[in-house]
Structure formats: structure tokens, C-alpha cells
Amino acid sequence: MKTKPILAILLLLCGLALAGCGEQAGDEADLAFSLRTGIVEGRMAYIGVGGAIDGQINPDLTVQTGQRVRIAIVNGDGASHDLALPDLGRQTPPVMGKETAAALTFTASETGVYSYLCTVAGHRQAGMEGRLVVTQ
Amino acid sequence: MAFLIILLRLIHIVAGAFWAGAAVAYFLYFEPTAKGLGPARSKFMQDLVGTHRYPVFMNTSSMLCILAGLALYWFSSNGLSVAWITSGPGLGFTLGSLAALAAFGIGFFGIRPRAERMGAVGAAMAKAGGPPTPEQGAELGRLEAEMHAFERWDVGLLVLSLALMAISRYLSF
Ligand code: HEM
Ligand SMILES: [Cu+2]
Question: Does residue A79 lie within any of the structural domains?
Fold first, then answer.
């Protein structure tokens, strides 16, 4: 059988996939939020952990311009999730498997209301969306 | 773990492309070509099924696609959450999966046994050395007609599944 080239290519792709999975280094932040994924009343959600957002469903994350902000997510349900700020072009790596965590860090530069959401197909529609509010 | 999702997608999409691609190519090209071979048709089937193990290829690629697909479905649907299944992408992937599962059933229980039977008749004819007996001719004709009817549904469902898989994540409701 002449399947060796095909197998070699597939193996190469697996290697690439593995190489693309490095954890992002977390850097210093002025303000940190932690969100846990879960299901609340049949809908998928980010649930605030600690501080003012503790226990809130898809909490508003309020920050000030110039602040270095870190948003961490922890997988609380075992499905596949992430957190993205599409307007700011930021996205965490996916978290899969319970208690897996990931984070993104950014500096809020312009005031406005941005949405944060999960990019796994259907998850935003199923409830995983909230607001990032940047004030003066 | 991101690697697992990427690996599952790689297996799922590559195996799905092999499965649906082979079914379409067989339906549109190999079967009509084989038909034009006349009596050599059963030799073609015998080689395809026996020597080159086409059913093994189809079983393997369809099973890999389905198993990886079910795993992706589990991780995407958050353990079959209704909110996800009723979202646009959820509905699309669910209908696409059902179409693929139906196609698998048709292929496994409808097409495969008939292709194997055609191969066996071809082998018997080759052993006897002559042209097909009237019974063999009649059986081959019947198998061919039945297979073609199943293939139309099989290919239609696979193309439907493929199309749904391709667009579902962009359904925004
Ligand atoms: C039982 C069978 C199947 C199941 C359960 C299934 C399930 C899924 C799921 C859940 C996804 C989404 C993955 C994700 O975005 O995380 C997906 C993606 C995909 N599937 Fe399937 N699938 C099945 C059969 C097929 C077949 C037969 C084909 C091809 C003929 C196919 C082609 C694709 C493609 C191309 C994607 C990528 C779409 C994208 O980029 O979002 N699937 N499948
Ligand atoms: Cu999610």
C-alpha cells in the first residue's frame, strides 16, 4: 500500500497541533477577574469567582482605561470552552477537562462596552456572553 | 486540553472527507465505469472488494469520522445541553450527525453486504471460467439495482451532512 506519504503528512499535522498549544505566559496585571464555566438553569454561562462579581452569571467586567487587566477562566463543566474579546482581538486558548484554566491579559485603551464570549460553535447562543465595560 | 480538540477535528474531518469523497467518487465515476465493462464488471467488483479491500477503507474511515464526531459533539454540546442543541450551530451539527449516522446504516447494512455478494459471485464465475449462468446474471442485475438505490440515499445524506458540518458554526441564532 502506498499510504506512507499520507501517514507522514497526518503525523506532521499532529506535531503542528501539539506545537501550537503552548500556554500563554501570564504577565503582571492591575486588575484580575476569574470566571468559571458552568450550566445555570439549562443555559451555558460564565460564573464570577471572587471579588465583586462572585456568583454572578456572565458578570459585567468593569475596568478603567490604562489598566492592565487579566481575565482567567476555569473549566467547571468538562466541555470545551474559551473566552474571547473579539473587538480587542484577544482570545484565551481553549480549556477542556474540568479545572483546566487559561487566561488573557490586555490593556484597556478606549472607553466603551465590549462583549466577551465563548467561541466554541453555539456556546455564545447557548448563553456564554457578557460585557466588558471600559470607563475613564 | 487544546491538543485533544485539534486531534479530534483532524481525525473527524480527514476521515469524513475520505468517507464522503469515496462514496461520491464511487457513485459518480467508478460505478458507471464498471457498468461499461460488461461481463468484466464482476471481476472489477471482486478486485475492488477482495484484493483492494474497499469495504475495509469505508468501514474504517466512517467509524473514525463517527467516533471523533461523537466526541466533538459531546465536548461542544456540554453533555447534550438543550440550550446548545437548540442553538443554530447545535441544530446544524445535530442534523448533520443524524444524516451521517443514517448514511452509515445504509452503507453498512444495505450496500456492503451486496457489494460483498457481488464479489463472491464474481469469484465463483472466475472459478467456473465461463460466462455467468442465467441465475448468476439475474442475481448480479438485482444486486446492482438494489445497490444503486441505496447509494443514492447514502450519497445524498453524506453530502447533506458535509454541507451542514461546513456551515453550522456560522448559523447565528
Ligand atoms: C456521526 C457523525 C458525525 C458527527 C457526530 C459529527 C459532529 C461534528 C461536530 C460536533 C463538529 C463541530 C466540531 C467543533 O466545531 O468543535 C463537526 C465538525 C465538522 N464535521 Fe462532523 N460529524 C459527523 C459526521 C461528519 C461527516 C460524515 C462529515 C463529512 C462528510 C463531517 C464533516 C465535518 C466538518 C468539515 C467539520 C468542521 C466544521 C467547522 O469548521 O466547524 N462530519 N462534526
Ligand atoms: Cu463555551
Answer: yes
